[in-house]
From TrEMBL:
Domain spans labelled HD: 287-409
The protein's name: CCA tRNA nucleotidyltransferase
Protein source organism: Cellulomonas oligotrophica
Needed co-factor(s): Mg(2+)
Coiled-coil segments on the chain, per record: 422-449
UniProt keyword annotations, A-Z: ATP-binding, Coiled coil, Magnesium, Metal-binding, Nucleotide-binding, Nucleotidyltransferase, RNA repair, RNA-binding, Transferase, tRNA processing
Pfam families, A to Z: HD, PolyA_pol, PolyA_pol_RNAbd
Gene3D superfamilies: Beta Polymerase, domain 2 (3.30.460.10), cca-adding enzyme, domain 2 (1.10.3090.10)
Signal peptide range in chain numbering: none
């Protein structure tokens, strides 16, 4: 099967032909796996007089050697014309994106001699996207040519297409050359492109993180000049791009683009605020640089799919990035030349939660990132004085289901250049994890509860349901954390001592025998 039209690979002013040839070979191998489904769909469209082309990410990824069963197509057909063709081709179809010109379908694996996995396609009418200056939503206008559709895409590496069923490669803006050069460039003037859809500025940072490419100088300059325009885009769309960036292979590179271009000032201002002035005596380290290093170390500590923290893990990465956002607000210069950031973890937890809420992150993510931020300093001091078993229990209990993430965040936060100090901190945390494991075996730390439940408490004190039962439960939980498992008899005796003291302090006499309920 020939997947390339003769002469389809463009030449470049620089000699990138060896790299281009390698990219072409990769694409042929990848596209061969999706060609049967694409060809079948293309034949249906051509029979009805419509054009169809595979576009965007699937074409780019094919050159990078990445296979995807989610395929994006562009067509000259309207949604009304495309929908029945997709219904005949696939086993299921939908029109949720009809207002934006998009209809979709799924072909189940094996039912048509297709690939081993389901093939999902979305077909979009040739179009252009642009923003009304007063609106947060794009205005969709349909176009009439593939080249015109490609000219309105975000970057040249996403503005390549493969016409089906005749498999002609279309690359009017030398996207393949840019792919070989590993550069992100817009098909048209970047100011026009970013003005049409300001979210493309966020996508630029995201693709730097995902692909490891560099940003074209003109595109970078345009983002610097137009960064404030991102404020017209909805928080949800910004959040989605930021999430993709953070979950990418090179999140630091993408974040540096956000900060260096000024985009972060509008979407994540807490990050550039970490660039505290470095005084001549270096009384504190660069908190911005430190936070990026912590993120990189946390990413390296993520596990495989069967591990404790399968990567990429959004909560861990957000916590690593934001754990010190409270430092600018809490910085104090002390007498004698020192610098302090007292309670920055508490302040930072509130700041992180506020920002993530503004970006419309889900409630659980907000809570988890804030909690990790609040707890990230708890370990410090462990190596300077032996923690009691009670302190270890509280550490585990306070972390709850976030313990494995907290382990990784705390280890990543040790970025000192002092090798002795770094080794001491590492050994101390090794010791803490060993103690946690030992106590876990002995006491089931993950589910610490008092030795008596609510029913047993009421029987021991001779009371009925009410607020006092909760107070007694908390008393026993504190005992459990402080002393470990007590056993029911010992817990009951201590509970009754607490009850007697409480009654005496309140001046109430209670001679009722155990088991008699209160009025």
């Amino acid at each position: 099967m020939h997947l390339w039209h003769p002469g389809a690979v463009p030449t470049s002013p620089d000699d990138h032909r060896p790299a281009l040839n390698q990219l072409q070979r990769r694409a042929i191998e990848v596209l061969a796996t999706v060609a049967p489904d694409a060809l079948a769909l293309g034949e249906r469209f051509r029979e009805q007089g419509h054009e169809l082309a595979l576009v965007g990410g699937p074409v780019r990824d094919a050159f990078l050697g990445r296979t995807s069963n989610d395929l994006d197509f562009a067509t000259s057909a309207s949604p009304d014309q495309a929908e029945p063709l997709l219904a005949a081709w696939g086993d299921a179809h939908w029109d949720i994106g009809r207002e934006f010109g998009t209809v979709g379908a799924r072909r189940f694996a094996g039912r048509h001699g297709a690939a081993s996995a389901d093939v999902v396609v979305e077909v979009t009418t040739y179009r252009t996207d642009e923003y009304d200056p007063t609106s947060r939503k794009p205005v969709v206008a349909f176009g009439d040519t593939l080249e015109g559709d490609l000219s309105r895409r975000d970057f040249t590496v996403n503005a390549m297409a493969l016409r089906v069923p005749d498999l002609v490669f279309v690359d009017p803006f030398d996207g393949l050359g840019d792919l070989a050069r590993r550069v992100l460039r817009t098909p048209v003037d970047p100011r026009q492109s970013f003005d049409d859809d300001p979210l493309r500025m966020m996508r630029a940072a995201r693709f730097v993180a995902q692909l490891g490419f560099r940003l074209d100088d003109d595109a970078r300059a345009a983002i610097v000049d137009m960064a404030e325009r991102i404020t017209i885009v909805s928080a949800e769309r910004v959040r989605d791009e930021l999430t993709k960036l953070l979950l990418a292979e090179h999140p630091r590179a993408g974040l540096e683009v956000l900060v260096d271009t000024g985009l972060a000032d509008h979407v994540l201002p807490e990050l550039p605020a970490l660039r505290l002035e470095i005084d001549e005596h270096h009384r504190h380290k660069d908190v911005y640089e430190h936070s990026l290093m912590v993120l990189e170390k946390a990413v390296a500590l993520e596990t495989g799919p069967d591990g404790a923290v399968p990567g990429p893990d959004l909560v861990l990465r957000l916590a690593a990035l934001l754990h010190d956002v409270g430092k600018p607000r809490t910085r104090r210069f002390e007498e004698g030349g020192g610098v302090s950031f007292h309670h920055h973890e508490v302040v930072g937890a509130k700041m992180a939660a506020k920002r993530l809420k503004a970006l419309r992150f889900d409630k659980q993510t907000v809570q988890d990132v804030a909690r990790l931020t609040e707890l990230h300093l708890r370990f410090h001091g462990y190596g300077e004085g032996e923690w009691t078993d009670s302190a270890v229990r509280r550490y585990v209990t306070d972390a709850g289901p976030l313990l494995e993430r907290l382990h990784r965040l705390t280890r990543s936060d040790s970025t000192t250049r002092n090798q002795r100090k770094a080794q001491r901190l590492s050994r101390a945390y090794d010791d803490l994890e060993v103690r946690i494991a030992r106590l876990r075996e002995q006491e089931e730390l993950a589910s610490i509860r008092p030795d008596l439940d609510g029913t047993q408490i009421m029987a021991a004190l001779g009371i009925g349901p009410g607020r006092v039962v909760g107070e007694a439960y908390r008393f026993l939980l504190e005992l459990r954390l402080d002393r470990g498992p007590l056993g029911e008899d010992a817990a009951r005796a201590l509970l009754q001592e607490w009850w007697a003291a409480r009654q005496a302090d309140s001046g109430v006499s209670d001679d009722r025998p155990t088991g008699q309920p209160t009025d």
